[in-house]
Fold:
Amino acid sequence: MPAASLDVHSSVGEVAYRQIRADVLFGRLKPGQRLKLDRLRIEYGTSVSTLREILNRLASEGLVSAESQKGFEVAPVCLRDLREVADMRLFLETHALDLSFAAGDLEWEGRVVAAHHKLSRIEQRLLAGSEADPAEWKRYDWDFHHSLVSACGSAELLDIHAGVYDKYLRYQMVVGIFRGEVAAREHADLLACALSRRATEAKAILATHINACVEAIEARQVLPADRAAA
Structure:
């Protein structure tokens, strides 16, 4: 999965950044949780000054909230933000999908097939009731969706899409959504469309794929309507 690098002047700081970012994305640091620097300093093995730099960077990514008087906390989640993130992901990914399907070559096809094979294997394990690391599952999900758009020809588009995907991912992890066989079938259908360059059909499948996940999260009734309620 994507993770932007942080200029913290030390490998220790970069490792801490990646760990904190992953803990936010996968819900180990809960939405709305206060991020106390003294505790984080011990837990992540880095200095308070480096932590401030890390948390400010995460605030610029929308994953942490920063207030001058209150310090830092994990950004809250709500249904309104979820819908906005999902709409943005769909907008970016369908545009990139169009470009990628038009420009994709044999190497691109190989990446897509390989990424789907890995994702399919872990989905089969989940469907069989086996234990699976959520981080591993979502890494393969990211790899597949990224491979589909990887031939779009725009590094800027891919970078923006990666950031939006991560915000979308956080909702899946916080609520704990895996739609099972339906989602696995949608992934297989996206693969078939990619190999036959059926972009219009692929975009329709992708819209269903994303919107159905949003509906499943909403159905859990565990998220507030907006940030004020959160």
